[in-house]
Amino acid sequence: MTLRLRQMEVFRAVMLTGSINGASRMLFISQPAVSRIISHMEQGLGYQLFNRTKGKLVPTPEGEALFTEVDDFYQHAMRVSDFAADLAHGPAGTLNISSSPCLSYRIVPRAIARFVDRYPRIRVNYHTTLMHMMAAEVLSNKVDLVVSVLPLEHPHLKVETFRRGRMVCVMPEGHELAAAETITFSDLSSVPLITHNPSIQFGKLIESAFAQAGFTPAPRIHVLQTEIACSLVRAGAGLAIVDEYTAAGGPWSGIVIRPLAHEIPLAPSIARTVFDRHGTHAQKFIEILTALD
Prior knowledge:
By secondary structure, the chain is α/β, with parallel strands linked by helices. About 45% of the residues lie in helices and about 20% in strands.
């Protein structure tokens, strides 16, 4: 059997996403069309590419081996295409990026500004997204890379931490704790406290840090968005524990930022699919992002 390019593309999409549904969304075709192409491939090859177990597709050893060759071929074809375009006009095309909202105030915009100045022919599509959506965005090729405030965990993602950060305490100007160099959890036990909801990653980090220090947080207000916490602080609703990037980058006149004595670390990271090729526009952007001071 001679494999067609379309068959290889569909097979690769199923392997990347792990499902017929994921492949159909990735390639913008119907699920029956994906199933039909995979079935035809298996019939023509004379062996199964996937085992169907409780509605899930599990690659067979033959499927795993074939994928290695198919992906190598696909990546080579894309490099040839990029090389041909670059020879004629210099780097051109589109770079799709998403990031955690808190990194959209300074870090990612600075990197994008340098990128478009260096590569004026490359258009950038940029938006923010929440951490629980990031893996799906990368694996479905909606974006070329994501920049998250904490490392993502997924077997099909390649994750690189590129700087260190921390959570901080923000309070209104003139608050009695503003004179302190650092804020302890004991200090926060006697003031109205604003924290992230325990159901999201920032909230879990805060609860864990309190527990490790032997304290139990008693927040008056839970929020889902850091900028709302800062707005509440500015309005006098209490003190908040937030990420340093939103605290320092947002338009928060009237608030004071102080470090926490019990450090809650952050690790901004870049995530790409493990099947991504090197030398792409994404790699150019990563080089600029990681070089920022």
